[in-house]
Amino acid sequence: MTLAEALPATGAATAPDTVLRVEGLCVSARTEAGLKPLVQDLSFELRKGETLAIAGESGSGKSITSLAIMGLLPQPAVRVTGGSIRFAGQDLTGLSEPALRAIRGDRIAMIFQEPMTSLNPVMTVGAQLAEAIRAHEAVSRPEAAKRAALALRAVRLSEPERRMTQYPHELSGGMRQRVMIAMALALKPEVLIADEPTTALDVTVQREVLDLLRDLQAQMGTAIILITHDMGVVAEMADRVIVMRQGRQVEAAPTLQIFDRPSADYTRALLAAVPRMGQGPTRPPVSTEPVARLTDVVVRYPLRQGVLGRVSANVHAVEHVSFDIRKGETFALVGESGCGKSTIARALVGLAPHQGRIEIAGQAMEGLDAQGLKAMRRKVQMVFQDPMAALNPRMRVGDLISEPLLIHGIGDAASQRARAADLMARVGLEPEHLNRYPHEFSGGQRQRICIARALALQPELVIADESVSALDVSVQARVLDLLRALQTEFGVAYLFISHDMAVVDNISDRVAVMYLGQIVELGTRAQIFGNPQHPYTRRLIGAVPVPDPRQKRRSGPRLAVEIPSPVHPPGQAPARVVLRDIGEGHLVGSEL
């Protein structure tokens, strides 16, 4: 039974064909110089049962439009200065806050992009879901709790009963996003606004969520406004598309027309930047000399309970993983959240205790003292997913880039400054901006700053942990081009961690597929994407949205079971996957 089938019917079936009409919408921000327009003269209609996608780069006005519809603009700093938003015969721009509150969450719901800032940190997940349900429906606490658990199960959150008792900070980013999606869908709204709803999700979970949204539409006629930079999701989900730039609509048309015959230059540039499966550049064979080697690496975290802190279970984050990363190559790690990708990255830079053996440039990490680890870290640097969280907001960019040189005592202040300026230029930024602070740059520019800082020590290996997943498609393309150019120039190797299979297909030389802390398949990019052998690998690749409306996939067979938990009682470990060579270094693990 799906979530849509389990929930009681609403009045959506009797709604008119057009459920939402936006006419001449203008939104402005108050500044010292006067009102600054953020959205200008935007008009569209949303019909029952259709999906309208709004695409464009960051700052184009997509999210501001959604907040205006929900009545969540941070007034008086930002407010609607013109036009109307009509829903069920009412102009939402003129409603009082109590009237808006009766509609918001019940009849018009929203899935926000950043779940951590949207969830209450002092309430359990179950309490927040139940509160949202009981705020709009007269149901008992047990019934609300039952509905909340059902919603979590519908979005494939493992162990939903246990998640109900947890707080948001105890969940991963992908898990928190699934909680937000469950909360939005629990009341089965007439209009659902999804603001980048799958950006933080793995490709298989993304497919389940998209299928769930289709279920809701098919059974209840729910209308969806989809805000996303993933053009594959647009092609698969949208009936019509609005393309926005700098607060204005530059093009609006049916999805097939947008992809086949875009009329605006900006739309054509946006589509050209989309990574597509099978279109990555072909590179000559790289060196066979390893810059990093992992042999039988195990990482487990004990879970303690009670006053005495006895170990009640172990999280088997990484189980008997072995592979090497060769000089000058891009080695990709792919898999769903919780499979151990980031744990391996932390182990490689000495931030996660492990068993087994890790060698960097021929030197074993085990047994190194603090000074030895510090010297080793000159050879391995890391680029994190969220550049704003990775950069000290109180330090100027020049100091951030040169700080690694200062820590390792390399050069004097003048040479460190010169090195920072040179790296700024190499990553495509202006050297004269060294005195700026991180908040003065865009997201893509901040990620370039993080790349420049990672290269300051001229490392042999750079770990890119979901480094482009939150970027707009055009910014993502520029950052990927930058990574390739820097690799050619410096001969650096990359450990590229990503859940975006299309990006991995475009940048990697070799790929390792992880599942529950173990590698189940390893081979070249051509082997993994052209001839996947393991069922899990085939499932990952098969779930990738294709940026072609003609290949729009409708709901297919669902997974029969949830992803198993990596938590096991003491002394009990998951079955070990044994890799076998099926030719030319293509390794495939035993069946799961």
Which CATH class of the largest domain applies here? Alpha Beta
The domain tally reads 2
Straight-line distance between termini: 26 Å
Q: Can you tell me the CATH topology of the largest domain?
A: Rossmann fold
Give the strand content. Answer: 25-35%
CATH homologous superfamily assignment of the largest domain: P-loop containing nucleotide triphosphate hydrolases
**Overall outline:** globular
Q: What is the CATH architecture assignment of the largest domain?
A: 3-Layer(aba) Sandwich
Unreliably modeled segments: 1-15, 555-561
Describe the protein's architecture and organization.
By secondary structure, this protein is an alpha/beta fold. The protein folds into two domains: 3-272, Rossmann fold; 290-366 and 512-588, 3-Layer(aba) Sandwich (Rossmann fold), CATH 3.40.50.300. Strands 16-17-18-13-19-20-23-22 form an eight-stranded mixed β-sheet, sandwiched between helices. Strand 11 and strand 12 form a beta hairpin. Helix 4 crosses helix 5 (141-154), helix 15 (397-407) packs across helix 16 and helix 15 (397-407) runs parallel beside helix 17 (443-455). It is globular, with a radius of gyration of 25 Å.
